[in-house]
Specification:
With about 800 residues, the protein is of the alpha+beta class. Among the domains are: about 1-195, tricorn interacting facor f3 domain (Immunoglobulin-like, Sandwich); about 305-440, Neutral Protease, domain 2 (Orthogonal Bundle), CATH 1.10.390. It contains 28 helices and 28 strands. The strands form 7 sheets. Strands 5-4-7-2-1-10-13-12 form an 8-stranded mixed β-sheet. It has a 5-stranded mixed β-sheet with strand order 15-16-17-19-18, with helices on one face. It has a 4-stranded antiparallel β-sheet with strand order 8-9-14-11, with no helix packed on it. Helix 2 crosses helix 4 (about 310-330), helix 22 (about 700-710) runs antiparallel to helix 23 (about 715-725) and helix 23 (about 715-725) runs parallel beside helix 26.
Length: about 800
């Protein structure tokens, strides 16, 4: 079936005609034990302008459809025509979705560990129409009531907890209370023979679910997950003046799921985030951020929803900002800002300097276009801008404005004007200049420092003219032996291209944005550059060191520093950094700079430098697990691998890394791979085995891995892991054919939905054996042949690889 994407114009017209009263959805999962069919009967009650015509969205196979008892014509292009509407209407559509392996909206996964079947739905941005008939746009909200028949051994979870469960022929029927009014992308149904863990906390009934073969990982991590969940619910409820309004809050970890989804009251996750090994501190930081991001959506996205996808950034940027805000204020992860600086913020800086740059808020003509802006501008840049806004109006004022916003608009839809208006009333400030500059203008400012005869000057260059209105901190640091002592700081309100900096003494380094309060790339003056590159470990705080590393990385990406300088700066910081949520990503950045950004002639020496830094961390007991992985990934032969084995004991995770490295160096020990796969209790150990073979410079192994990824025989999250093993340095000859193979695959990478489109486009993109001309060609091919989600993901990833290619030539 050819499926049309809903346009904003059509959505506005339909919303003017309709008011949805309720959805009653009956789901039959009994065929899914052995077959592919997901069956649903959607009963929609709605009011309408009498005599009007419209359509309901439906992309699955229609078995029967009636409007007010009258049969309806067949669906065309994913739509069923509705003519001659009454004031009060009842629409009943029975459907079956048979493509539950690679299709959209509904997925059936078989656990390779025990052959148990798990089923889940996931609908953002408009994929509910693949599961049942609905008016699939965000501003037609309505309560959803689910009745689900499932096999007797299965547990069913949905948005509202405490279902009525009854035995019926062929299984059990689960009846859930109606939800509050939700947009069509917020409901969820998940089912399977889950293991379940529950805990009471803060007046909420918290639930965790996973497949049975991951029971030990779930039970190991449950207490920490419950703690983070309770901390987040308390923080957001207090800051937003509205406790989460439902008693149950469930989180379900699912096989073959991509990312995480903020379904109201029932967040779904990829169960790859349940680490098969003991999670490192840095991995827990990621876990906390994602958990709090999805939780923030309960308020910003679910309780209050954007009217149309041009305000998608309001959902995603706000949740991304709020997760870091909550992590710093309410959890053990008080260095989240520094972690973000050496993580996602780097990608936002890079994206905003290349062809993928766009205003945070921009027109979105169709839902298909919306899929293309789930990117680094919408997420980390948007989050940074909202953080800057909170500093601009003050945190207490910000909370007052947000509480008023939620109180006024709960269970409704809003636009940007509603949010800005609420914050203007709370702050008494005109925020329209801020809005125009930060939300409606693309590009990132470049801030610098100059020492002139008249004193220090902060320079500011906007991407397309004047710089953004912003307040930025400048720290002054002076050498004191090995240390760089802060001898002063200034808060500078940028008023144009050149702003005097008052009150700072002479110093060896002036660090711009040292307190990370704005979104701007920065450059030191010539004297400061030498200090920044050669001795950043002297800076006194984790945040200052992270700002320095973000500056050095942007210098590398911009061609203002070499890979050797970047590795030197990062490994210097690792001499002193003890905050593991910063040390771990810095170690990863150092290895990435050595392996992906450095000229081939320098790679081995730089890898050795990174390995030396990892050995120091092991000796110091800082980020030991991550450091041991790095030692394996930089091993030059069997002696190095044996040394790590002696340190790591019977750690299965590190043994997989060792097999990866041996394969990359040219030796695939098939017997050892098979033996480890049999010993490993991880039900997805077969993916690790495929990754070992993918690391090999063997043409046959590369072909096996590429085919598995392109043909989707590995889950989306696993494809990222296999792709990282596939694209290895020093293997350019065997990798060369896959540049063309990638171009051939581009028209199909979006199949199965937005998440596969984003993940496969970025992870399969060639890292080696390409040049600037090929990158330009890839962009042209994508623009001519690929879906918008693929074009957007390719544009962002290609810019990063293009800059790697240039750095390798320095």
């Amino acid at each position: 079936m050819t499926v049309r994407s809903l346009s904003q114009e059509e959505a506005v017209e339909r919303a003017a005609l309709l008011a949805i009263t309720s959805y009653d959805i009956e789901v039959d999962l009994t065929d899914l034990v052995d077959g592919p069919a997901f069956r649903a009967v959607s009963t929609v009650r709605f009011r309408a302008t009498a005599g009007a015509s419209t359509f309901v969205d439906c992309c699955s196979e229609v078995e029967a459809a009636t409007l007010n008892g009258t049969p309806l014509p067949a669906a065309e292009e994913g739509r069923i025509a509705l003519d001659g509407l009454a004031e009060d209407n009842e629409l009943v559509v029975a459907t079956v979705q048979r493509d539950t392996t690679h299709g959209r909206g509904v997925h059936r996964a078989v656990d390779p560990g025990d052959d148990n079947v798990y089923v889940w739905t996931s609908f953002e941005p408009d994929e509910a129409r693949y599961a049942w008939a609905c008016f699939d746009q965000p501003d037609l909200k309505a309560p959803h009531a689910f009745t689900v028949v499932a096999p007797e051994a299965w547990t069913v979870v949905s948005n509202s907890g405490d279902p009525l469960v009854e035995d019926v022929d062929g299984g059990r029927r689960w009846t859930f209370e109606p939800t509050p009014p939700l947009s069509t992308y917020n409901p969820v149904v998940v089912a399977g023979p889950f293991v379940e863990v529950r805990q009471e906390a803060g007046g909420h009934d918290l639930g965790l679910y996973a497949r049975q073969t991951l029971a030990s990982a779930l039970e190991r991590d449950a207490e920490q997950l419950f703690t983070l969940t309770a901390q987040g619910l308390e923080f957001f409820g207090e800051r937003f003046g509205m406790p989460f309004p439902q008693r149950t809050y469930d989180q379900v970890f699912l096989p073959e799921f991509g990312g995480a989804m903020e379904n109201y009251g029932c967040v779904t996750w990829s169960d790859s985030i349940l680490r098969r090994h003991e999670p490192t501190t840095g991995e827990w930081q990621v876990f906390a951020n994602v958990l709090l991001h999805e939780m923030a959506h309960m308020w910003f996205g679910n309780i209050v929803t954007m009217r149309w996808w041009d305000d998608l950034w309001l959902n995603e940027a706000f949740a991304e900002f709020a997760c870091m805000w909550a992590a710093e204020r309410a959890t053990a992860y008080g260095d989240t800002a520094a972690n973000n600086l050496v993580g996602d913020k780097l990608y936002a800086y890079l994206a905003d300097q290349g062809p993928s740059s766009h205003p945070i808020r921009q027109p979105v003509r169709t839902v298909a276009d919306a899929e293309s802006i789930f990117d680094s501008i919408t997420y980390p840049k948007g989050a940074a801008v909202l953080k800057q806004l909170m500093h601009f109006v003050g945190e207490d004022t910000f909370c007052v404005g947000m509480s008023a916003y939620f109180a006024e608009h709960a269970w409704g839809n809003t636009t940007l004007d509603d949010l800005v208006g609420s914050l203007e009333r709370a702050s008494g400030r005109d925020l329209q200049p801020w809005r125009a500059a930060w939300l409606e203008t693309a590009g990132v400012d470049r801030l610098g420092i100059e020492q002139t005869d008249d004193g220090l000057v902060l320079t500011a260059v906007g991407a397309h003219g004047a710089p953004h209105p912003q307040v930025v901190g400048v720290g002054a640091y002076r050498r004191a032996g090995e240390a760089l002592e802060e001898v002063g700081s200034a808060r500078v309100e940028v008023v144009g291209g050149r702003t005097a900096v008052e009150g700072l003494p002479d110093a060896d380094l002036y660090l711009v944005n040292h307190d990370d309060t704005t979104f701007a790339t920065t450059r030191p003056d010539p004297a400061g550059r030498q200090v920044l590159v050669s001795h950043p470990s002297g800076l006194p705080t984790t945040l200052a060191r992270a700002v320095a590393m973000a500056t050095v990385w942007d210098m590398l990406a911009g061609g203002d520093a070499t890979a050797a300088e970047a590795v030197g700066a990062l490994t210097d910081v690792l001499r002193v950094e003890t905050v593991e949520t910063v040390a771990e990503p810095c170690l990863e950045l150092a290895l990435t700079a050595a392996q992906q950004w450095a000229p081939e002639s320098e790679r081995l020496d730089l890898e050795a430098q990174v390995a030396a830094a990892a050995r120091r961390l092991v000796d110091a007991g800082v980020s030991r697990q991550a450091a041991l992985r790095t030692l394996v990934r930089t091993a030059t032969g069997e002696d190095d691998l044996a040394a790590v084995r002696e340190l790591s004991g019977d750690d299965l995770d590190l043994q997989w890394y060792a097999l990866d490295r041996r394969a990359e160096l040219g030796e695939v020990d098939a017997d050892a791979v098979q033996a480890l796969q049999e010993r490993d209790p991880d039900p997805d150990a077969w993916v690790r085995a495929l990754g070992v073979r993918a690391s090999s410079p063997s043409a046959e192994a590369k072909e096996e891995a590429w085919t598995a990824m392109v043909e989707r025989t590995v889950p989306i999250q696993a494809a990222r892991t296999v792709a990282a093993a596939f694209w290895r340095p020093g293997q350019e000859d065997v990798l060369a054919p896959y540049a063309e193979r990638y171009l051939e695959a581009l028209p199909t990478l979006h199949e199965g939905g937005m998440i596969p489109g984003l993940a496969l486009t970025a992870s399969l993109f060639p890292v080696y054996a390409v040049d600037e001309a090929w990158v330009a060609r890839a962009r042209d091919v994508a623009a001519a042949q690929a879906a918008p989600v693929v074009v957007g993901s390719l544009t962002e990833r290609s810019e990063e690889v293009l800059r790697m290619v240039r750095a390798r030539s320095l």
